[in-house]
Amino acid sequence: MSIDGLFKTGLILSLLLIVNPAEARDNSGPALREEAVSQPQTASENQPAAPPRLAVLIIIDQFRHDFLQRFDDLFVEDGFRRFMDRGAWLQDARFSHVHASTSPGHSVVTSGTYAHKTGMVNNWWYDRDRGVFQPSLVDPESHVLGKEPTENGRASTRQLEGSSLADELRLATRNRGKAISISLKDYSAMITAGKLGDPYWFEASLGRITSSSYFMDDLPDWVKRFNARKLPDQSFGRKWERLFPEELYLERAGEDIREGEEDNRDSGITFPHVTKGGLEAPGPRYWNAFKHTPWSTDYQLEFARQAIIEEGLGQDDIPDVLIICLSANDYIGHDFGPYSQETMDATLRTDRQLADFFAFLDERVGRDHTLLALTADHGVMDLPEQLKLDGLEAGRAGPEPLTALVEEALDGLHGEDDWVEHLAESGLYLNYDAIDSRALSRDEVEQTAAEAIVAHPAVWRAYTRHRIERRQLPESDLTQAVYHSFHSRNSGDVMLVSKPFYLLLGEYGSATVGTSHGWPHEYDLHVPIMFHGPWIAAGHYRHRVDTADITPTICNLLQITLPSGRDGRILGEIIR
Q1: Cα three-residue angle 54-56-61, rounded to 5 degrees
Q2: Are residues 378 and 407 both part of a single domain?
């Protein structure tokens, strides 16, 4: 099914099943009601006349859709439940790309556009021109404020192709509307700010909030005052204990010690976790460890409150956008996995932290003026060691055995050489000099490499550049994801897809502990999409939607132009 799903031009959808949230908690099961959506809805007395003054988009890093269902009875009234009971909850929302990682995920959410147009194929990829494996957003001409410029460090969105939500807001309002993004990660902050917004992130090497010279010459005075409070240092040595009695965690998540968990930054793998980073006083190693705690979410939301106050967000009829990328859930999930007590506790705390933040928004901006949207950049796989104990085939695979398969196959056919220039999650990059010096056909070499590498037990599918660029793959959801993920300059010559429940390549493919994400399987692709505000028709929607639909919908409600290359559509069925 294409990204437009059942909403292709000319197709008439007569009935849409929606769950009434007021009935959804009935013990007899959720009642269904039918609502016709084939004709445009006319304006009603209850429909807001003006667009939102402030659109707040919350992207929770590594937050699977099933977290909302597993713990819903433990949520407070006005955190996640604000969306689940009184907003639009789209329950079959997925990414339609291969590489379910932070850079492509945040890019899709805030531009409505996939990597085939933006170039954000993964968190890292191989740069053929420079001959280096580099992170996304490299820009030697810009630098992180407070640090020296580097040749291979993240510093701007110069390489990001096309426009985003933040860009379109700034253009539509002639730079009067403000677009601010906040994260613990440099790349998620910058990607969500586009080229014209203002990104801020917690730089662990500095222990404070910063930005990039690409976006601003210096930090605003209010940010400097915020940094002077040294809030992260106040959590040095703080003990992270469970929010509820241990018995509840044993029932919902199992034992505290699980095979494959990672003791990251010396905080231990069981409750209580004491975070010092192995130091006697706050420093970079502690500040990195701080990101793996729930307290860093408090820190981000406190900075968001200050941004709203100091920048006057939502205080007039010129719309503003605030994008908050909550990163702690990702760090915690990598360490302990989605079925851990730690992830359960972090989810319950996030719920309460958001409830407090929403109460602030209600008071400062007002519910009638605020559009809320919540989603995630990707999901996560369970710990492969735990999956094996549960009886599933699972594992890890680094680049060495896969590279050896390709080298052996091509050596046997064409003579010994270094045929593989690089292998990463973004693809297999072949040595063009070795191919061209023998006057070989590149597409035939790609096919040989693909057939060789797919023999590895961790590899499920392998697609060649030749067939992708000519759109010669059999039509399916998976091949549509391949097309969305392939960028002619940044992608490799063979695109790999992991077998389900395998960590293939990347940091965790070569590790022995921890878990990750990054592949087109349900546990990585299925995330929440929820909206709340007086413009939204509340309900539980169970038809397929795409995460690329989020930004077009927000742009429509803000009455601004949609991003330049958007693949997504306006979710008209949830708009009153």
Answers
A1: 165
A2: no
Rounded to the nearest 5°, which phi and psi values hold at 92?
-120, 60
Q: Which domain holds residue 224?
A: 54-383+527-574
End-to-end Cα distance, the chain? 27
Query: Tell me, what's the pLDDT at 48?
Result: 66
Query: Domains in the chain: how many in total?
Result: 2
Distance CA 209, CA 184 (A): 9
Whether residues 297 and 371 fall in one domain:
yes
Q: 450-481, pLDDT tens digit by residue?
A: 999 999 999 999 999 999 999 999 999 999 99
Q: Which of helix, strand or coil describes residue 216?
A: coil
Do 179 and 256 fall into the same domain? Answer: yes
Q: How is residue 464 written in tokens?
A: 């060649």
d(CA 141, CA 202): 21
**Shared domain check, 415 and 337:** no
Q: At what angle do helices 102-111 and 165-172 cross, to 10 degrees?
A: 30
pLDDT, averaged across the chain:
93
* β 88-94/539-546 pair status: parallel
Name the pTM for this structure.
0.92
290, 542 contact by CB (below 8 A): no
